[in-house]
Amino acid sequence: MKKKVISAILVAAMMTGCLTACGADGGAKGKQTVSIFVFGNDQEQAIYTDMFKAFEEANNCTVEAQMCIKDDYNTTLTGMMTAKDLPDVFYMGPEAVSQYVANGYAMEITPVLDELGLSTDDLPQDILASYSIDGKLYGLPHDASVFAYAYNKDLFDAEGIPYPDPNKPYTYEEFVEICQKFTKDTDGDGEIDQWGMGAANPFMFYQYVWSNGASFLSDDYKTVTIDTPEFKDALQKYVDLTLKYGVTPTVEQDASLGVYQRWLAGQEAFYACGTWDVAAFMDKEVFPYEWDLCGYPTLSTGISTTWCGTVGYAVNASTKNKDLATKLAYFMSADPDGNRTLSGITTGASIQLPNLISMANGEFKDAIADGSLPFPNNTEVFFNYLNGSDGYAGKFMESTYTPNGEWIDIFFNSLDTVKNGSVTVDDYIAQMQPQMQEALDNAWESVQ
Amino acid sequence: MANKKDIQSSGGRYKKERRMDAVVFVLLAIGAVAMVFPLIYMICASFMTRNQILSADFSLIPNPVKHGKYLEVLSKPEFIRGVRNTLLVEVPVLVVGAFTSSLAAFSFSKLRFKGKDAIFLGFLATMMIPFAVVMIPQYVLFTRLGLTNNLLPLILPGLFGNVSIIFFLRQNLTSVPYEFVEAAKIDGCGYFKMYYSIFLPLMKGALMTQVILWFMGIWNDYLAPTIFVSKDKWYTLQVVIRQFNATYAVNSDYPLIMAASVLSLIPTLLLFFFFQRYIIESLAISGVKG
Amino acid sequence: MSKRNEKYKMSTAARKENRYGLAFVTPPFIGFCLFMAFPIVFAFIASLTKWNGMNNMLDNFVGLRNYIKLFTDEKFWKVLLNTIIYMIGIPCGMILGVVIALGMNRKIRGIKVLRTMYYIPVISSLVAVSILWAWVFNYDYGLFNSIIKAVSGVHGPNWLGDEFWVKVSMIIFMTWKGLGTAIILYLSGLQSIPRDYYEAAKIDGASGWTLFKHITWPLVSPVTFYLLITGIIGGFQVFVEIVVMVPNGGLNYSAATVVFYLYEKAFTNNQMGYASAMAFVLAIIIFIVTAINFVGQNKWVKTID
Question: Residue C251: its chain A contacts at CB < 8 A?
Fold first, then answer.
């Protein structure tokens, strides 16, 4: 018996020991090691893995990579910060730059880049600016993404409606009218099963606010400004799509099958398409319809506006190997082969636009033109939003500039009560504004 | 005559009882089917096509029957890894934890030492402390020690024993007369030997049941792994299942999600079927006498 | 001489026992210190700071401000109320449990199979059954609304998307998940009631409801008490089912529980100090409610002597 107990303990101890060993160090000896932590879906993770391999070969080092899905990233990263166990390279959004710099997590990278002779000239300058404080650069963009609008060509063909003109986005009134033509019961069972559009609140409401000249926050991002007439008007117009015109699935219908799934099922004429969605939408297994890009409808300003996003690579301020870590960050951001892979020039599956301006204007467009890269025809919609040209504009979400996003979550958490008609726009704004302001105040207070 | 009447009437009562029994059984059976119906539905759905699940007409029988989803789940490295990681937590925790818990239970029940009651009360009080209170500090502790990139945060606490098992085993030993200890002392038996040669065999059955319940608890745990394990390659099964749900719902791949959920239930269900007599007995003891 | 010697001897033996006794409880004691006592102290200190996981905790001392803020935090009161509303499931489970246990407390062949079926939800993984039930509650394709539509022709409620129905959904789910435990405990409680109690009462002419009210129910009161205590302690900690079924906390935060809110504060919004204060208040609430229950138990919890 004694022996049994002792051997059992030994087994357990050995297993535990083995676990620590495996967990702590996977790298080979002799080579330099650089660690990186990124997020992505299965497909992206596979691409990153290949890129890490290429980097390892080119620099004779070991890349110790950790990857997770997007939702879990921030929690894990905060844990690493708490533990003072940050990887050498990690993601940092523009919203985090000031905090990460103030708390000593992100390193200024310009000097190292200069030393290594790596240039940032071919990267989009206004995106770089979002990773800079007082002219000092702390991050390199992983991507610059755009959340554009898309339409299902097959549905337009079926209804005999001309395609939207990317050079002239619909006005709100025109848009409603078009959407109404699509909204119908196609199989005659008495229930509507095809809609003009699907609206996922947290992603597709900003467009109405901004195009109406309104905003969630004041210019200093300290005051919630949702009680302006422009904002209320934008909200009214947005909920009217569901409530008054009924051109979107109802709140209940959305609860049973999300608007995204309904778009994939060909039940909606308009839906959004982020730059990261292109590969999936071009894949006939995922989306068996013809489609193209277009602009969001315009409100009072007449400018079609959507949100852009970016996440960047930061280099750990206390990394043991500044050069290698910076090299890796630069490689992930600006390596031509990496850019070709992610933008789909070499793979035919695009999950982001090239970061390199010369490539975006050259190879990328050529690949689309010669058909080697499956991409919607109206590519310029993405670039117009990104560059703010031809009646288009792109912005960062306002939560990008605040220490946390609790205040905006509050707004979207109950927006469906307006959408289903149980609360009026005025009441909703009156109810939400103080709550959001309080959360925003708390957020600012928490970092001061 | 009187005798015969008696028999008749009792026969009548017997018949009435029988009829009552049948009615009760049918009612209980309906309830039982209702209880497991969602699970049956889950199993059926895992064999359906996506379109059948998303069709307007409700159906229970898969048509056509697809079992490819199970192969798909089993071929996903995350899933297998999740099972492996869960087992890597289970084995050391259960082996060492069972030992430390039973040893402490023996000590609390049969040995006299200073501060015994105070320590025991302290342990009992922890059963009331919500995990939410300790989760943030534990998280900080584990991250500061650099343990969140492996499974140790899930293993370490268990190695030191489990309060509810100590409590249960201690209750279990109260029925063992103190004379056992005295007799052993007279024989010159050491305390550790007393534990493993007399008391451990005595609580073997109860301990086994508790270990099975603990196994299920670890198998089904979600909150601790989701907070304490940051490296995806160390995710335990429940975290993996939850991620499947988040990832594949976007493509409405509900059959896959259902198949993964079904697979994750199988081990605990099997254990329960094999050991249900003991499990139910020990549960009843903690509820009625505890 | 010999007496002194004996005394000396006894105390060596006692000391030895003392030493071994302590040694044997040392592992759980260390675990207790590391994973309970230390965290509790730490959480208390953290609750007095504006710590966000990134900054230095002790530099951001704010005194009792987190606690004061908590009392004016409408969202906190809302989630606390939600959490308490979910506890309606506790009496539901008790009533169903005792009724079913009464049915099972008969010598019918095959009853054990049914008992097993009722118990299956208890041992099933919470994550897996929550995923399943999210589907059961689906507005268009779910089991419930399909059945409702087939039976009545009317479309059922938006279970998880409506502020009222989401609570009903959760109560149904929790009752389903926990019913097996209540049945098994009541069954063993019923089986421990001596038959002659009933015989005596029957001679007095009591029957049915009276028997239940005056004999059965009082004599299973220890089980009721146990279910109440464990139900309340567990009920205050509901988290996983919410996070799986209504990941955003429900329309207007109607489904969120205290631990859900706390988790969000700590790990999403990085307000670890505030979250610690909330955890402490939660612990105090649980302590008070449990203490009240224990004090009150003398009034209604009977034991069989």
Answer: 413-414, 416-417
